[in-house]
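Why does residue order matter? Because the sequence determines the fold. Keep that principle in mind as you read this record.
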Amino acid sequence: MKTTRPRVSVVAILAFSWCAGAFAHSAVEPVPRPDEWWKTRHASMNEKVAALGGKAQLIFIGDSITQGWEGEGKEVWARYYGPRNAINLGIGGDRTQHVLWRLDNGNLAGLKPKAAVLMIGTNNSNGEDNTVEQIAEGVTAIVKKLRDKLPGTKILLIPIFPRSENPSAIRGKVLQVNQVLQKLADEQNIFWTDFGYRFVSADGTIPRELMPDYLHLSAKGYGIWAESIEPRLASILGDTPVRADAGGAARDRGRLERYDAAGKMAYHRRGDRPMRPSARSARAKKAGAGALFVNGSMG
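Structure:
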């Protein structure tokens, strides 16, 4: 007699994984930040949310790399997302716990977007504040909250981007988090699009032309982000995909294609390769504290 295993929903998996591990660690405890500029930014975002309301088709949630769509990425944003009534919900320096708080305090009020693009966690990876598992639990908690509050919204889960000029312990930590997060994708409500390798050269270094400080994106970097998610995003939104600007990011397509394959290999190897705990400790000790931070920057 043939038996079949009952299928477990992604929501159930999210709920279990969050409840099982989310005990008293910072990545899953919703908290605001005390800075006045942060409060001002949060209030400003809530005003935009209230103004657009149900007209917003698309939201981006994250830290300074997401907020950077308003800076280095503004021209790319205008081309791809301006016509879609998109809202930028990124705040520099935010960690998973801050996003969790924001989602309960106005950032989603009245919204019914078709898609939410989520990329968060790089600031949790700084130092020893959170482990790989804790960071993954923090992101998982955000995904669960989005599914609870916006059940009709599709989530594009973006991997934490590689960081630091050369392969390093922190890059390996980020990759391990991403390997956990990609398992959340069910290709129905949660989608995973990994294009982090496009920021890494064949020798494992990150080009300054894409990340000037080896953490935050340049205009070209934002062009890569937009191009990489556009096919999936357009499908979710029911739009015709936006064509890449022939005078912008697409100008570098040939160069990108030349090292994409090698970059993908470098992305998953060298310092990016997940290391055993003993190996991570040895690498971190050898590299020194500088390997864990990029000029003290926050994403």
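The chain is about 40% helix and 5% strand.
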